[in-house]
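Consider the tokenized backbone below.
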């Protein structure tokens, strides 16, 4: 991944915090060229806001949900994507969820000239794609039904296939929330 600088400025207003976030890159922009890259940028920006202002967890959840649902993602899928904290797992999930067309878009980009918002370019390797799918099929995050059906067909039972728990008598959660590990949900007001 080439360098990316993200700056966050929070200004309190009577209507809630005003958050100005900017990013600076040293290559050409890929956000509009690739859904996969746009998700990588969204992770960078949400992480930057929460690192600087952890009390804005609710604001970030609403912002990310609003932006991605306008792009056609469901709220459950957005919550699922942003419940993952490790970059390699984020990359696997995003790669699986953008679908074949999204993967082809990402692979067509010349990353010598254009920005890569992910830690590596491993997604060019067919073996990595297999590893991503294997991770997705066997990981421990609860997967919304529509996400599983997108990947594995309409007959899938994600609560059976994708829920890993040391106590099989415990059912999977019925709802999905935006939780960024290492962050604490609070009143959503900016620090200061």
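A designed sequence for it:
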């Amino acid at each position: 991944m080439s360098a990316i600088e993200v700056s966050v400025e929070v200004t309190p207003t009577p209507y809630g915090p005003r958050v100005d976030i900017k990013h600076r890159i040293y290559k050409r922009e890929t956000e509009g060229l690739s859904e996969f890259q746009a998700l990588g940028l969204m992770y960078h920006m949400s992480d930057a806001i929460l690192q600087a202002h952890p009390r804005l967890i609710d604001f970030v959840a609403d912002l990310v949900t609003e932006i991605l649902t306008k792009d056609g993602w469901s709220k459950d899928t957005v919550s699922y994507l942003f419940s993952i904290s490790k970059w390699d797992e984020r990359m696997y999930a995003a790669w699986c969820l953008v679908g074949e067309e999204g993967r082809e878009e990402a692979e067509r980009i010349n990353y010598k000239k254009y920005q890569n918002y992910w830690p590596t370019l491993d997604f060019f390797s067919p073996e990595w794609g297999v590893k991503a799918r294997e991770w997705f099929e066997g990981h421990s995050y609860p997967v919304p039904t529509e996400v599983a059906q997108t990947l594995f067909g309409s007959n899938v039972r994600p609560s059976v296939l994708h829920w890993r728990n040391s106590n099989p008598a415990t059912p999977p959660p019925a709802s999905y929330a935006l939780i960024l590990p290492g962050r604490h949900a609070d009143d959503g007001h900016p620090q200061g």
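The helical segments are 35-52, 57-70, 75-81, 87-97, 99-108, 126-138, 145-152, 158-161.
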